[in-house]
Structure formats: structure tokens, C-alpha cells
């Protein structure tokens, strides 16, 4: 993974949320919490705003022992928790890695709402009570 990141830096390749989430997932799968913490802290520097998949990665990491409070606090200070909940990760990345419990539970909650509520509501991470 370090070689891929290094090659991307050498080529001045811009990161997007899909690339970031793939790299975060690989660190998570290896349970490399040091690398995961470092990469999460670098997202703002790389102009990558987390999407709902990134939040799912963070919460899954917390389920297996990662302390993500610092990251969540950073996102709160940046105002990211008050923005609209979006999924900007390429669906192919989700097909390869799976959705995870957080994303599935969000989908279930949304699908259980009446059609009018789903269309009119502006969902933020604060409204979803994640903070």
C-alpha cells in the first residue's frame, strides 16, 4: 500500500473519496491502526471529504478496537457532520469490499421511512445522532 501511495504522490495524482476509502479499507483489513489514524488525519490535506462509506470504515474500525474519537472530533470541527449525508464512493469499490453494518443499517433506516419523509428530509450526520 505504501508503494501505491508513493507512486500516486510521485505522479501528483489527486485523491478522491473512492481512492481514500480503498486505501483506508486496506489498512483496516490489516488492522494497521497506526496507518489508519495517519491516513484519516491526512484526508483534509488531500482535500478529501469523507462520505458515508468513510464514516462506516471509521465505525467498523471502532468496533474492532480503534479509537476514532480524535478523527470524529476533527470532522466535527471542520463542519463535516453538518453537511448532507452522501455516498460518493464508486459502487464498484463497494462491490469489491462489501457494505458493512453501518451502511446497511443506514439503508434500512432510510427505506423504512415513508416516501415523503425520504424525499423531504435533509439528512446530516448530526441528525443521524452519530456525534
Descriptive keywords:
single chain, globular, mainly alpha, 131 residues
Characterise this structure:
There is one protein chain. The protein has one domain. Helices cover 60% and strands 0% of the residues. It is built from eight helices and no strands. Helix 2 runs antiparallel to helix 3, helix 2 runs parallel beside helix 4 and helix 4 packs across helix 7. The model has no long low-confidence stretch (mean pLDDT 84).
- Could you tell me the mean pLDDT? 84
Distance between the termini: 31 Å
Structural class: mainly alpha
Number of strands: 0
SSE pattern: HHHHHHHH
List the helices and strands and how they pair.
Layout: H1 2-10, H2 17-29, H3 33-42, H4 52-63, H5 69-77, H6 91-97, H7 100-111, H8 115-120
Helix pairs in contact: 2-3, 2-4, 4-7
How would you summarize what this structure contains?
By secondary structure, the chain is an all-alpha fold. It has helices at residues 2-10, 17-29, 33-42, 52-63, 69-77, 91-97, 100-111, 115-120.
